[in-house]
Amino acid sequence: MQIADRIAATQGKTIFYFSLETSKDELTEKNLSRLSFELANESSRNPQTARSINNGYWLDHKPEFKLVMKAINTYSKYYSLIHIFDGTLNRPTANTIYKKMKAYRRKHPDIKPVVIVDYLQILKPIDDKDTDKEKVTKSIAAFKSIASELEIRVIVISSFNRSSYQSPVAMESFKESGEIEYYADTLLGLQYRAIHDDVDNTRDNIREAMQKEPRDIELVVLKNRNGRSNTNINFEYYPKYNDFIPLDD
């Protein structure tokens, strides 16, 4: 969602966000929380978590009220560009998303939106009889059609194999990675920086990394057809406020 916000706010592009695990209201609260954190850094006021925004704590406290209202005002400038489809109750298939975007492009031929799918493995299968591998293969193929036929950029979030949780991120980390690797133009992986620094880390190391505030996160470019691969970007991640901040180093 932070990527979606940045694209909408800085480039004015339309976003279609298909969320299969988190409701639209929850995502909106997380966005406002992140904005309150970023605005608080500028004004030295107390940022609000998504939970405090949900329970209305800020309504009865003047400094927090002003901060949240400022976040709402900031979000309102590009909110209309972000279309969040709540798939938590009625999961779409990749074909459903393809048909929806094809209809949109037919109606708005001059607009090329960005599609974000969160996430691949919990999409409804195109055919209920498909195996897990077939499900991923058909879904990824549908997303490739959205990208190539409809000229729409597609960002698909994927889970990792459970066996890869304590290993440095690699192409093999992705579930059914063969199809994901083949179709994707760019393949990115997130990991705790401690995994990169110490490949022999244990569960205790992972637990310690998860408890840090902020958390040290590394984004690894595993594949990039149109640019450099095998590079990395380091972030500080503030989980309370859903904010990734890139580091200069």
Please report the total strand number as a whole number: 8
Biggest β-sheet description: 4 strands, parallel
- Beginning-to-end CA distance, first to last residue: 24 Å
Question: What is the helix/strand order?
Answer: HEHHHEHEHEHEHHEEE
DSSP helical segment count? 9
What's the CATH architecture name of the largest domain? 3-Layer(aba) Sandwich
The Cα radius of gyration reads 19 Å
Estimate what percentage of residues fall within beta strands.
15-25%
Category by helix and strand content: alpha/beta
EC number: 3.6.1.-
Keywords: ATP-binding, Helicase, Hydrolase, Nucleotide-binding
GO molecular function: ATP binding; DNA helicase activity; hydrolase activity
Pfam families: DnaB_C
Q: What would you say this structure looks like, in words?
A:
Helix content is 42%, strand content 20%. With 249 residues, it is an alpha/beta fold. The protein has two domains: 2-184, P-loop containing nucleotide triphosphate hydrolases (Rossmann fold, 3-Layer(aba) Sandwich), CATH 3.40.50; 185-249, no CATH class. A four-stranded parallel beta sheet has the order 2-1-3-4, sandwiched between helices.
Question: What would a concise description of this structure say?
Answer:
With 249 residues, the chain is an alpha/beta fold. Helices cover 42% and strands 20% of the residues. Strands 2-1-3-4 form a four-stranded parallel beta sheet, sandwiched between helices. Strands 5-6-7-8 form a four-stranded antiparallel beta sheet.
